[in-house]
Amino acid sequence: MKAVILAGGMGTRLDEESESKPKPMVEVGGRPILWHIMKHLAWHGVEEFVVALGHRGDVVKRYFTDQSNLAGDMVVDMSEGSIVTRHDPPPEGWKIHLCDTGPHANTAARLWKVRHLVGDAPFLVTYGDGVSDVDLKMLVKAHELGKRVATITAVRPPARFGALHVLGNGRVAEFSEKQREGWINGGYMVFEPRIFEQMELWLVGEQTDLSAGVLAKLAEMGELTAHQHGGYWQCMDTMREKRLLDALWANGAAPWKVWP
Description:
The protein has helices spanning 15-18, 33-43, 57-70, 107-113, 136-146, 195-202, 210-221, 239-250; strands at residues 3-7, 27-28, 31-32, 48-53, 74-77, 83-86, 95-100, 123-127, 130-132, 150-155, 163-166, 172-176, 184-191, 224-228, 233-235. It is of the alpha/beta class. The protein has one domain (3-250): Spore Coat Polysaccharide Biosynthesis Protein SpsA, Chain A, CATH 3.90.550.
């Protein structure tokens, strides 16, 4: 399957990192989080990516161009006019479409603008700012069984704050730091190509949101399936979350690293 990655975010709560780069290029363990997401997808068989770019898309293009041109050992023959011979193939055998979808487009508009690249088969969609160990083969199976237009991965992230159970007299009966939120959209989705027939009716300029403007309408129509994932999932919206992911990677304890 092809995978569309919505990678146009500015990362306003990652100011010290994202002033000169888009949010998906903020590094975790020395690699952009976008690379981590693609490695996870590739481990499950995805080899062709459509990356919808926005804010500072040139940084993403430069990164993958350099990865393709400079990775591995090579010979530069200056006597023959700088002919380059590779000793090693590029480390990743991926085909990546890097598509400018505008600096101000919202998520649904970005997906709409790359529709010509997804083909006529079901395709994956995810965001460029979160990691997970979700089994994509199980997600696709859930989509096939559901027989609906779209399937989302439902996750239960840890609550940001602990919870108090306070009695009527003011006494704290229970204090817990490990509450979990309810089910939310974890951002790993499968769509049928016919989604674009509906989106054409729902798009309102550049500002239509994929979740509120498309997925919510599909739910109303009975055309949305949820695949419940009880494993690891973590977004990277803040510097605190970036440091958390960095620490897990540095300690060799990154749950999303499902590849060897």
